[in-house]
Amino acid sequence: MSEQNVNLILKQEESTEEEVVVSFSAIIRKLKKYFVIWFLVAIIVGGLIAGVSVFFRTTSITPVHAIVSFTHKGIENGKNPDGTDFDANTLKSPEIIENALRACDRELNLLEPVRRGIEIEGIIPENAYQRMRTYQNIYESASSGQLAAAQAMLDVSWVSTQYSITFKYKDTGLTRSDAVQILNAMLDAYRDYYFEKFGYNEAFGNSLASMNYNDYDYAQAVDMFRIELKKMSRYVNELATDDTTRFRSTDTGYTFADLKEAISSVQTLDLDLISSYLNVNNISKNKERLQTYYEYRIENLELEQQTNKEALAAVENAFESYEKDQVIIFSDSVANTETTVSSEEYDKLINRRIAAQADLSETNQNIAYYKQRLATLKKNASSGTGKAERIEKDLAKLKEKIDELNDLVNRTADDYFRNVSLSDSYNILVPATSEVATTIKSGISKSIVPIFGIEAVLLVAYLAVAFIQALVEETRKRNKLHAAAAEEETAEKTDEKPEKENKKK
After folding, report:
1. pLDDT per residue over 450-496, tens digit each?
2. How does 249-283 read in b/e, with b if 16+ C-beta sit within 10 Å?
3. Which of 90, 147, 408, 446 has the fewest CB neighbours in a 10 Å radius?
4. Is 342 exposed, middle or buried (0-12, 13-18, 19+ CB in 10 A)?
């Protein structure tokens, strides 16, 4: 029985030694003990990382950045406002860089180094990226029967509307502040280019500025003014049609309706008066030469008339043979509903027919006009120099009025495009900057990720040390308790032996 009791105690001690026990109170005590040390180390390490990041951001030649966005109609399909293909690299075209360098009073030999240092990258939103990735996964896992549908899904593409512009100026010899100044000047130069290019003012221009009407006969000068006024009137009509706000320019004080009235007044009160006076009095610098001009114009217009007739006939045939798409809606009733849907091609044919008819009508009017002038020229004798001097004065005044109108139209249109039509089409979301506060903020933001990583490691180490120390402490306490219990048990056994021996005796 004594040996069995000894074996049982040894087994109990063995199982107890294999147990690993640590209390929450012990862990909390160790966490409190090492908290100050961990907190100070975390603060010091985080500060060191942020300081190193800010140091390198402020002392090294790091690139400067800017972000721009486009919101005009068609940009989602990769198109410019005029329907041409959009190219973000126009932002660093030689024309833009040259204008920026001139604005910053820099040498033009920097143009090529600056151009090589500019990088433009489209920004794709995360949801669009995930959607395209999903479509790609579907395509890769599609079976042969589903391949066509999966391929159609892959046709979905994304055109960036925001672009990040990076200027790596290390090889240009510029300082950071100079690089920031040039990059911002480029963004401003592109704004001017954008409004001139897609505001259509540059395309409208002023053809009279490059031509001297005094080099031509009076009747030819009148034709030049008439063509210019027609172009101007057509341009203003297009802007008035596009304008739904009845825009009034703060620069000129005119609306497009006001400009239409002003152009019409010059056409009827000035140009027509000069033209009628010219025809009635048969005024010309060279009658024979002017007659040849009229005959040439009539011949060309008759050829143009035939071309217009053929174009109109072709459009009419296409229009008559075109069938709009039909949709049949089935229902439970006796008769099914049949309807047509709008068609973009059908609408284009209508616009082409209207344009062809307008061209033919204008050509017919011009033919009749020149024939009437030719008949008058052949019938009447030329007038004297007095009336010719009056015509020259009237033409000079008319030229001044047309130049003034041209300036008003361009300034009003430019104001309209900048503040209404294209006001939000091009935006500088984040300009380049060299401010110390911004640089420090950028350095700190760059250090956030490594700081979190190292702080996480320190936190794990802090918890691990507290746990291990608590475990060691608890183990030591348990070992002491076990040792004390073993000593007491040994002492008891030692005391029991003499008692048993005495009993046996």
Report:
1. 777 887 888 888 788 878 877 777 777 777 777 777 777 777 666 66
2. beebebbbebbbebbeebbeebbeebbebbbebbb
3. 147
4. exposed
